[in-house]
Structure formats: C-alpha cells, structure tokens
Amino acid sequence: MTTTTELALNAPTGIATLEDANKGVEFLRIVNQFYKEVDQANAESISLAHKSHKAALKVAQDLKKPLEADAAKVRLMLEAYAENRSAELPEGVFRRDVYTVVVTDPSKVPAHFLIPDTKALADYAKRTDGAVKIPGCEILKDVAVTVRAE
Hints:
Blueprint: H1 4-9, H2 18-82, H3 118-127
C-alpha cells in the first residue's frame, strides 16, 4: 500500500491547464482508491470496535436502568425542598434558578432572537438556481467537483 507521504508528494501544486486538471483528477482517483483500501483494511477491526462499544454501552445502561426512576424521584424531591429559599441545603448541593421559555406567539418574538435557517435558505437558493432574491441575504455560488473512481 502506498504511504500517505508518498501520495502527498505527488499532489498537484496548481491547476491552470487541462493537462494540470487531468493530473489533479488522476491524483484524486488515486487518493480515493487509497481511502477505499484503508477502509477495507480496517473494516473488520472497526466493526469489532463498534460491536464492543455497543456492548459496553448496553452493559452500562443495564447497570444504571434500575436506579433511574428512584434517582429522578429524589431529584424532584430535592428540587421541591430547595425551592424554599430559607431551607438549608446539604453539603455539596447548590441551588440555582433554571428558566424555560415557551413561545406562545412566534409573530411577537423580537427579531434579534430569531436565527435564520441557513440550510433551508441554501436549499431554496439551489432549487431556484439562485435566481430568486431572498431579502436580507446574499446568495453566493461556488463550484464543487466530485471525482468518481474508475
């Protein structure tokens, strides 16, 4: 198997002509083939590691499961006890306020709290080939290349 260093030494340093582009494509095909070989060479050990990891997670989950309900009840009781601001708390227990917000009318939420969905915006730009302007947005178009293995 070729080494990563050997491959890197053959990487094109610039592409200005069709001949350079062909060399770039050939380099990417070699790299893709190298990736395939690396994946194939490590497939079994990766699969075994995944299975081992999954089994270890299952053991941990099985050990924790019987205590989850009781721990949740105790946490709720401690939280109820701690709501009384004058209550002395056991050592190692701290009181902190936790806030949750439920949006009841999205149209009234101030604009500075709204986060644009850039993935949805990019998908829309792609569907319209960037021809439809989106207020408040600049549509940038780049080129990506894909080299398929032979």
